[in-house]
Amino acid sequence: MKNLARTARWLLTLAWQADRARLLKAIVLLTLGYLATPGIALALGAFTDNLLDGRLGATFVIGVLIALVLVAELMMGHFAHLYYYEVGELAESRINSELIRYVNGTPGVEHLDNAKFADTVTLVREEIQKARAYIEALLQVVLLGGQLILTTVILASLEPWLLLLPLGALPPVIMGRYAQRSIDRSRDAAVEQNRLARHLLHVATSSSSAKEARILGAEAALKRRHERSWREATAKLWRGQLAGAALRALGQVTFAAAVCATVYLVLLQAVRGLVTVGDVVLVITLAVQVNAQVAAALSVLSTLHAAGHTLRRLDSLKTWPTREPRTPAAVRPVPARLRHGIRLEAVSFSYPGSDRPVLREVDLDLPAGRTVALVGENGAGKSTLVKLLCGLYEPTAGRILVDGVDLREMPPEEWRSAISTLFQDFARLEFTLRENVGVGDLARMGNDDVLTDVLGRAGAEPIVRRVPGGLDGALGHGYTDGAELSGGQWQTLGLARSALRDQPLMLVLDEPAAALDAAAEHATFEQYAGSAGEVGSNGGVTLFVSHRFSTVRMADRIVVLEGGRVAEIGDHAELLASRGLYADLFELQARSYS
Ligand SMILES: Nc1ncnc2c1ncn2[C@@H]1O[C@H](COP(=O)(O)OP(=O)(O)OP(=O)(O)O)[C@@H](O)[C@H]1O
Questions:
Q1: Which of 29, 274, 293, 351 has the fewest CB within 10 Å, making it most exposed?
Q2: Side-chain-side CA neighbours of residue 295 (13 Å)
Q3: Its domain of life (predicted)?
């Protein structure tokens, strides 16, 4: 009950803040419609008595009135629907904004790596689409309650025992709650298989992965796994739904017994001459209406219970343990330019929920104005180090100093706006070409000259020529039928995006050439060697992660990571001369290309 009241308060506040005028109009129209229902029962009773007494004129007037009220009741419902539909749409947009804030409004990204957080976001994203139904259910439950009270008063005025009829409606309500719990439990239990099934469907049908699956001959296996996950998910849902239906049926049977007792009682009164035939018609009509009202109340109550789940899920996202926000006393500004550089002191790191250190006591200098390459075998911890430097995660131990100031003391959003990045798993932003690149520096999104310049520097002219509509042409099929690009072309746009921010303190390129062909790779690194100089004028550091030694060798400083530790540091010549891991990896690659 407490949960229900809290859900009702949440929905009412949401609807009120979304559009109070439309909400009030919906309430007035719905109230008129709901009053009409017991009104029709009363009119039917009077209609019967007048007819039996031979008062044809009065009977005709009441008959016409009943017809008009029935039409009006329908019309009220239609117009009310229009109003609360709009309120629901606006409320959905408010919850969407809230969800975006919970996912993005934290200093770090630790929560995004948590499977439970991801599951909760998926569920809330689906449930938000029912915001209109939730608000409609709230209005209906209040008005159905009013209708039930009115009906009870009319019944009790004829026979006090009939006061008990609405009590017969309690078992279905209670059973309905248990039924909903069983259904919710099955939904929670099936969420993982559902997610897997959706993912497998995506892999099997999206053009990029479907091609690879076809060549690997994996489509049958994908289909089988998809079917299995889907079957497992639906089996769990089916069991929950079946138990729910059985519980609901039990409640309804109890109520049916109460209706039978009601009809018996009123017939007894009629035989004794205490009530008229019209009263019998009235009671039977009201009893049937109570049945419909209880069924409706049950259905809207289960919708409200579902809304309660959405609210609790939103609460859990809102209160998800994330990094503590900075206390003002500890805040230090991000410098306008780097004088000395970025220094890592005994930095260790384990991902949240894991004891396994991915980085161990890393000591490292990234001197101002220099180009630093990070190399190492798969899983050595290169991308993790990059994420720490970007402030997306905090070291578990040790510290990162920017010109001697601990990165933890700098406002994360200020640091993020001072750096420029292109991650290994770069975003394929399926918007217009202008938006895809312009999001790198929102203030310059409207500047065609700047955009054209960075696109040129990233070697993206062929893409601009390919996209119908140029800068304002759409990319991908995310929301419209835009130009489809290759993996390398998407990455080239990512490069242009990362080059848009003017004079960053740190330019991070995590395998920026992974999807590029050899010529494009060469051009890119020539370009970025140049842009590193440019960044350097601001004292900025260019840090790139790469497996390609032909490009790594261009860096001023090369850092070799091995098992989360710094194994070697030096320039290309020094590292070759020291004949360590770098030299081994370099020679291995040189041999495989010769
Ligand atoms: N979000 C995460 N949660 C838990 N463990 C992670 C996460 N991301 C990476 N790891 C683990 O951390 C280790 C280092 O991963 P990282 O991506 O930093 O390596 P890398 O050197 O960049 O590898 P690659 O060259 O393949 O990109 C790996 O063992 C990986 O499984």
A1: 274
A2: 10
A3: Bacteria
67 in any annotated domain: yes
Q: How many CB atoms lie within 10 A of CB 238?
A: 12
Please name the residues in contact with 275: beta carbons below 8 A apart, sequence gap of 6 or more: 158, 159, 266, 269
- Nearest-Å Rg of the Cα atoms of the chain is 34
Asked whether 384 lines ligand 1 (CB < 6 A), one says yes
Note whether ipTM > 0.85 here. yes
| Distance from Cα 549 to the centre of ligand 1, integer Å | 21
Which tens digit of pLDDT belongs to each residue from 345-378?
999 999 887 889 999 999 999 999 888 999 988 8
Measuring from atom 27 of ligand 1, which residue has the nearest CA?
A: 378
Instruction: Quick: pLDDT tens for 491-520.
Output: 888 888 888 887 889 988 887 666 565 556
Domain annotation covers residue 247? no
Identify which of 110, 384, 421 to mutate to test ligand 1's pocket (most ligand atoms within 8 A of the CB): 384
Distance 199 CA to ligand 1 centre (A): 21
pLDDT tops 80 at residue 522: no
Atom of ligand 1 nearest to the CA of 386: 18
* Three-state DSSP state, 562: strand
**CA angle, 214 then 218 then 224, to 5°:** 125
Number of domains in the chain: 1
Beta 419-422 vs 506-510: how paired, if at all? parallel
Amino acid at position 142, single letter = V
From the CB of 113, is ligand 1 less than 6 Å away?
yes
Per-residue pLDDT tens over the stretch 237-284 = 999 999 999 998 998 898 888 888 888 888 888 888 888 999 989 988
Residue 480 per-residue DSSP state: S
409 contacts 326 by C-beta, under 8 angstroms: yes
Instruction: Identify the weakest region by mean pLDDT among 191-200, 324-333, 363-372.
Output: 324-333
Evaluate whether residue 303 is within a structural domain.
yes
Rounded distance between C-alpha atoms, residue 164 and residue 262, angstroms: 9
Kindly state if the Cβ of 359 falls inside 6 Å of ligand 1.
no
Strands of 541-545's sheet in order across: 419-422, 506-510, 541-545, 371-376, 557-562, 565-570
Q: How far is the CA of 491 from the centre of ligand 1 (A)?
A: 20
The Å distance, Cα 384 to ligand 1 centre, comes to 6
The DSSP line for 124-139 is HHHHHTTHHHHHHHHH
Tokens of residue 122, six digits: 């998926």
Q: Say how far apart CA 383 and CA 398 lie, in whole Å.
A: 18
Structural domain of 136: 2-159+275-318
- Please report, to the nearest 10 degrees, the dihedral formed by the alpha carbons of residues 174, 178, 184, 189 taken in order: 170
